[in-house]
Q: What sequence folds into this?
């Protein structure tokens, strides 16, 4: 399975994709501070187990690759088929690709996959309130703000909110 | 054009490094190509600098165009 966009290829990660480069992203506070996982405690072994925990039936872990095969980030998709809903996430690990609209392009393909191929009706996602580019991307892509969990996380010495977004099939590409 | 709108346009133009004379009055994240995620962050940072405080999450979520930035500036002006 492979999902293609103008500039990128999404494909499920395999164990061989657990590399020092990938691990380095999780250990980089610039990357990991807005993720919902403890990047610092990860190892190559835990990364492999994480990759293997995705069945690519209802739990997907797509790597985002450039056209020449360089891994630059990931998308997750966790479907709840009985509710025709999924939670999705993104990490752009390679900072050279920050600010270049990668999530807008690759998430659009993932959304098409979720609605058209998986037959889902709704997607949900969240980000911390200090992740301004992520909030921009959700707003730009037409996601609706569905709620804010106040003081949900401590990042550094700052209490931050968790901002929740939703996208329903009927609001996509209208 | 209100004072707040003028200030909002000047702030946005400064953040995205374009001549305010060329910034459309109805510029938004959807209509202005230069208003990308990084420039959005610059707009928020400049707004925080202007207000001398952190932007609240609700305010952050409201920022999509000139009017929304003007609304935040005008509210702050009223409170002073």
A:
């Amino acid at each position: 399975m492979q999902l293609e966009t103008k500039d990128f290829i999404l494909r499920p990660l395999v164990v061989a994709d657990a590399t020092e480069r990938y691990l380095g992203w999780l250990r980089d506070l610039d990357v990991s501070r807005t993720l919902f996982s403890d990047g610092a405690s990860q190892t190559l072994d835990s990364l492999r187990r994480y990759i293997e925990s995705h069945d690519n039936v209802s739990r997907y872990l797509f790597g985002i690759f450039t056209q020449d095969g360089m891994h630059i980030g990931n998308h997750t998709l966790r479907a709840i088929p009985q509710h025709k809903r999924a939670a999705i996430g993104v990490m752009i690990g390679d900072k050279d690709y920050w600010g270049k609209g990668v999530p807008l392009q690759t998430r659009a393909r993932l959304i098409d996959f979720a609605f058209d191929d998986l037959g889902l009706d709704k997607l949900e996602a969240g980000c911390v309130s200090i992740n301004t580019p992520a909030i921009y991307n959700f707003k730009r892509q037409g996601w609706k703000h569905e709620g804010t969990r106040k003081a949900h996380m401590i990042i550094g010495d700052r209490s931050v909110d968790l901002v929740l977004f939703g996208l329903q099939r009927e609001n996509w590409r209208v | 054009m209100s004072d707040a709108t003028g200030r909002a346009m000047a702030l946005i133009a400064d953040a995205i490094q374009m001549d305010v004379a060329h910034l459309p009055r109805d510029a938004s994240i959807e209509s202005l190509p230069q208003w990308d995620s990084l420039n959005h962050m610059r707009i928020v940072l400049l707004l925080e600098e202007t207000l001398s405080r952190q932007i609240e999450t609700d305010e952050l979520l409201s920022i999509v165009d000139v009017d929304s930035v003007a609304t935040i500036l005008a509210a702050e002006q009223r409170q002073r």
